């Protein structure tokens, strides 16, 4: 926590020279805008009145209905209707039940009960009694443009980016996950990001009424790593939602191997780049990569393959060894345990969870020891050359050219300075000067 606070205040102390400037634009998509309809010229009170009842510790939905003085017969009907979609006994403490009446009347017209962050059960009264429906919590879609430079590490450069102030902190961490998933074949964020690297992103997100992100997708990304820019442009080749990322030449970013067997945000060294390989306690020459991570952190197979070893093996402790095509082999050591279904001879796919970080064998703290071998010799996973996935096929080339030009151009909105505020004013119809500058 202290580390967090420290870097947080540093980011703000450094605001004058803050390089991590960003834009936060609302570019509504055509489909998802809640339509408020025509506004009345006069301010009129809503015809409906809402009362919010919060389910407290030890309280039940029935208790809420008692508080709003619903007759017993209605309560029975409401419970039956509710049970078509959810269990009243499973409502979480803190759930906000919205009870709607006609203004000036005591009769309850309807009740909305959120059952998770994306759905609510809507109970309504009609001439025949109570009925229920499951309603998606409304969302809108916007596009967020953000740019920053890495001063300390990627995590703080994104999570502490002043341009993302309007976004809940947990969602900012999810932006890092999105980046990690886009570049997982190109970069090990924990070991290859350097101070002075920079990023620009345009991502589309679905936002719930409370401002949190239901889902997000990077449309275009630029990551300048040691002076060399990497690009990722989203493209849905089959137009079925299962798209992927391509570079500016239309080459897939996908590779046969992930750079790292752990999700970036689970690697604890992100908090302190000076402590990247703290746990090295093996006497023989070190032929792998160590990742400090909490016990129980899921470990992924970096490529498709067949399990060769699953069990205790000397200093490796609990070890998984996987044979891959083209003479490659990987090892994952010191595991706390194995994922279910992992057995010698079983097939795994890239990204499958094979086990969990631990400190079995020769290890002084929880970490993952990872090795990559080619033709029986250890190789450096960061420097091995893995061929690219399938490029854009010729028949999709026209569409790719159009869409990638458009998405690439989005990156230019993710700039610091006056352009950014102008772009925002244009997008939202607001006065640019009303957008406070980041200082
Ligand atoms: Zn090691």
Description:
The protein has 439 residues and is of the alpha+beta class. It folds into three domains: 2-28 and 140-254 and 394-434, Nuclear Transport Factor 2, Chain: A (Roll); 48-136, Nuclear Transport Factor 2, Chain: A (Roll); 264-379, Glucose Permease (Domain IIA), CATH 2.70.70. Helix content is 18%, strand content 30%. It is built from eight helices and 20 strands. It has helices spanning 2-13, 61-67, 72-83, 154-159, 169-183, 189-192, 397-410, 418-428; strands spanning 48-54, 96-102, 108-116, 119-126, 129-136, 140-149, 198-207, 213-225, 228-235, 244-246, 289-292, 298-300, 305-312, 318-323, 328-335, 337-338, 347-348, 353-356, 367-374, 377-379. Strands 11, 13, 14, 15, 17, 19 and 20 form a seven-stranded antiparallel beta sheet that branches. It has a five-stranded antiparallel beta sheet with strand order 1-2-3-4-5, with helices on one face. Strand 2 (96-102) and strand 3 form a beta hairpin. It is globular, with a radius of gyration of 26 Å. The site of zinc ion has 6 residues, from loops. Zinc ion binds at residues 280, 282, 286, 288, 290, 369.
